[in-house]
Design a protein that fits this description.
- The protein is an alpha/beta fold and 491 residues long.
- It folds into two domains: 265 residues, Aldehyde Dehydrogenase, Chain A, domain 1 (3-Layer(aba) Sandwich), CATH 3.40.605.10; 181 residues, Aldehyde Dehydrogenase, Chain A, domain 2 (3-Layer(aba) Sandwich).
- 38% of the residues lie in helices and 21% in strands.
- The strands form five sheets. Strands 14-15-16-13-12-17-18 form a seven-stranded mixed β-sheet, sandwiched between helices.
- A hairpin with a 2-residue loop joins strand 3 and strand 4.
- Helix 9 crosses helix 10.
- The protein is globular and about 75 Å long.
- The mean pLDDT is 97.
Length: 491
């Protein structure tokens, strides 16, 4: 069977890389199935894409924002029409089960509809002046050419978060998708093109982060970089970007679920299984630590192991599959190393831990017990179907354990006590806190992002997405007809 060759998208045209080189991608559930060949972009491709975006900027910024919103509504409609096709493509390309890939596409639909509506807002502020006959306000202006660098685990939803917010604000985009999910990226660009995004407004360059990503970040014409991925890459972006760029980093985490002794344990069990093993644990919001009150720890541990035994691994296209594969061989090897490390550190492997002999990158759902803060399985983001249980004496101890990592993206507490819930909300050092729900489940109209090593302070989606992709300019209009000096001539 012939293997399809996919192109890059620059200045409204599909074409090959200047390098003349391609790479292949396989189905992570069956590594014998080659999905396609993809362009190995280089610096020259990035330069062309940035130049195209720069040339398109002035015309695009002058399109009225509600008109830009109409295009995004057409994108949403096309995503709806192709939802099942896109979901199946995503499952083949990165592995997660169909229920989740359908949710990924739906998140993109919701984001497009939200950002289309922002074309009727893009709010600034009006306020009083300290002087007579003087008007003060702010307005939101686009930045220019922005770089959107996205991961493979949400290969349509996260590009939609970044690109639609950038577009509604009047920016033009150079999009660098993950090399693990270039088909989903291509399908999304095809929909943007079909919806009527003008040439040059969105450009896509595929290829390695070390060349395409690095050159894009360093490019002097790029005014902002929005990145989701590993914290080490984020740290390098901060070094490479230079002065004058906005940098938005959404990175990893080591997310805790606290289960108090008054919690509904069945509800908590559902949340832990979903948070720990959904997407095979490959989410920045995955529940990779479970901190359980000592009074219910043994009971909950038995419940979790029994539930894990019922999870079925396999191809995400199969309707009975609960847990799909890891994205690639390197991910499988990394998770297997952490499982061995956890055992060597003294944590008890209570369930799972095996790498099955299948033609895909699978690892069994894995549960450690007795994990402590001095262990790497407690501290490091494993990004696989591995979670660890740690006993807490009380709520204060549980919060202390939850905060004892460098990350701070998502957190959760299960309790029936409102005082426990409010204390957790106040003291958990995380950008998101859920009460009686898992660490997974953000909605597109609210900010998303973390604290500490999980982010750079800029949050995505919702109104904060608009804030990141605009410059809020302060404007003073003095109609007094005379020179007035603020802080000096106040009467």
């Amino acid at each position: 069977m012939a293997v399809a060759t996919y192109k890059m998208y620059i200045d409204g045209k599909w074409g090959s890389s200047n390098s003349g080189e391609t790479y292949t991608r396989v189905n992570p559930a069956n590594y014998n199935q080659v999905l396609g060949r993809f362009q190995q972009g280089n610096k020259e491709d990035v330069n062309k894409a940035v130049d195209a975006a720069e040339d398109a900027f002035e015309k695009w910024r002058n399109v009225p924002p509600p008109k830009r919103g109409e295009i995004l509504l057409r994108v949403a409609q096309l995503l709806k029409e192709h939802k099942e096709e896109l979901a199946r493509t995503m499952t083949r390309e990165m592995g997660k089960v169909l229920m989740e890939t359908r949710g990924d596409v739906q998140e993109a639909i919701d984001t497009c509809e939200l950002m289309a509506g922002e074309g009727r807002r893009l709010f600034g502020r009006t306020t009083t002046s300290e002087l007579r006959d003087k008007f003060a306000m702010t307005v939101r202006l686009p930045l220019g050419v922005v770089a959107c660098i996205t991961p493979w685990n949400f290969p349509i939803a996260i590009p939609a978060w970044k690109i639609t917010a950038a577009l509604i604000c009047g920016n033009t985009v150079v999009f660098k998708p993950s090399s693990d999910t270039p088909i989903c990226a291509t399908k999304f660009i095809e929909i943007l093109e079909k919806a009527g995004v003008p040439k040059g407004v969105v450009n896509m360059v595929t290829g390695p982060g070390g060349t395409v990503g690095t050159h894009l970040v360093k490019h002097k014409k790029v005014r902002a970089v929005s990145f989701t991925g590993h914290k080490d890459t984020g740290a390098q972006i901060l070094k490479d970007a230079g002065i004058g760029k906005k940098i938005g980093l959404e990175m990893g985490s080591k997310n805790p679920i606290i289960i108090m002794d008054d919690a509904d344990l069945e509800l908590a069990l559902d949340g832990v299984v979903w948070g720990a093993f959904g997407t095979c644990g490959q989410r920045c919001t995955a529940a990779s630590r479970v901190i359980v009150h000592k009074k219910v720890k043994e009971k909950f541990q038995r419940m979790l192991i029994e539930r894990a035994k019922k999870l079925r691994m396999g191809d995400g296209l199969h309707p009975k599959t609960d847990v799909g594969p890891l994205v690639n061989k390197a991910a499988q090897e990394k998770v297997a190393k952490y499982i061995e490390l956890g055992k060597n550190e003294g944590a008890k492997l209570s369930y799972g831990g095996k790498v099955p002999k299948l033609k895909g990158w699978f690892v069994e759902p894995t549960i450690f017990t007795g994990a402590s803060p001095d262990m790497k399985i407690f501290q490091d983001e494993i990004f696989g179907p591995v979670t660890s249980l740690t006993e807490a004496r009380n709520l204060d101890h549980a919060i202390e354990l939850a905060n004892a990592v460098e990350y701070g993206l998502s957190s959760s507490i299960y309790t029936s006590n409102i005082q426990n819930a409010m204390k957790a909300i106040k003291y958990l050092e995380y950008g998101l806190t859920y009460v009686n729900s898992s660490t997974i489940g953000s909605e597109v109209h609210l900010p998303f992002g973390g604290t500490k090593a999980s982010g750079s302070g800029h949050k995505e989606v919702g109104w904060t997405g608009i804030e990141f992709f605009t410059d809020e300019k302060t404007v003073y209009i003095d109609y007094s007809g005379k020179l007035q000096r603020a802080q000096i001539d106040i009467e």
